[in-house]
Amino acid sequence: MKYIHDINLKGKVALVTGAARGIGRACCLAMAEVGADIAVGLRDIDKDSGLIDELNELGVNVLPVQMDVSDKKQIDEAVAQIISHFGRIDILVNNAGIAPDNLIENYTEEDFDKTIAVNLKGTFFTSQAVGKQMIEQNSGRIINLSSQAGFIALAEESVYCMTKAGISHLTKCFAAEWAKYNINVNAVAPTFIETPGTEPWLNKPEFKKDVLSKILLNKVGQPIDVASAVAYLASPAGDMITGSTMMIDGGWTIV
After folding, report:
1. Integer Cα distance of 251 and 156 in angstroms
2. How many Cβ atoms sit within 10 Å of the Cβ of residue 193?
3. In whole angstroms, what is the distance from residue 176 CA to residue 35 CA?
4. Biggest alpha carbon distance in the chain?
5. Residue 113 near residue 127, CB atoms below 8 Å
6. How far is residue 150's CA from residue 252's CA, in Å, rounded to a whole number?
7. Which residues is 14 bridged to in the sheet?
């Protein structure tokens, strides 16, 4: 008799968007470590970050695909390429996201539209494209990247906060509609994670001090903290979880 589900993804195919660095990169490596083959969604496939070599060293099958998620044509072409190569997609991690910061009164229409296009439109239409395959398979896992910013207000991040709140609610809508196809849809909501994107901010002593004062565990997160939760939700251990947003925020949002 087994007393715990395995966090095992052998035989599964996972697509991660925005995979070149940071959390996306960590998700690719974490799921490969527990056996998943990986489709690596890249905004610029010609930029070599070394990720493909690292995944190959883990002994899994790897397919890099050109995938700017603000462009529906690229989404559809990438998903078709992945299905042609692997025959299926079992796991989707909607990681691609951007966060132009500005005061509300100074926010430009261009940055507004771009943030919506990547964070919300990209998540919706990538889920739609992959979801059609999952419906045919009658199975699948979708994990969206929300943020603690979807649950609290951050100065100079109004549009980013709005999109991340939208992702958490969109997660519930997809989960409710696609449960009948055995598709689990969840989100994870990290606090500040040490990545190339947050490095300029966290390198400012006063900023980091302020961040740590709000994180009850008094530490900044690492990409592996998010990737481990994603692998859990993608695995049999997450079988009875859908429509949820898992907070990975060190306690920031509970006080």
Report:
1. 22
2. 20
3. 29
4. 61
5. no
6. 12
7. 38, 91
pLDDT tens-place string over residues 98-142: 999 999 999 999 999 999 999 999 999 999 999 999 999 999 999
Active site residues per annotation? 160
The per-residue pLDDT for range 190-229, each reduced to its tens digit, is: 999 999 999 999 999 999 999 999 999 999 999 999 999 9
Residues 6 or more apart from 132 whose CB is under 8 A from it? none
Q: Which domains does the chain have, with CATH numbers?
A: 13-248 (3.40.50.720)
Strands laid side by side in the 62-66 sheet: 62-66, 37-42, 13-16, 91-94, 140-145, 183-190, 245-248
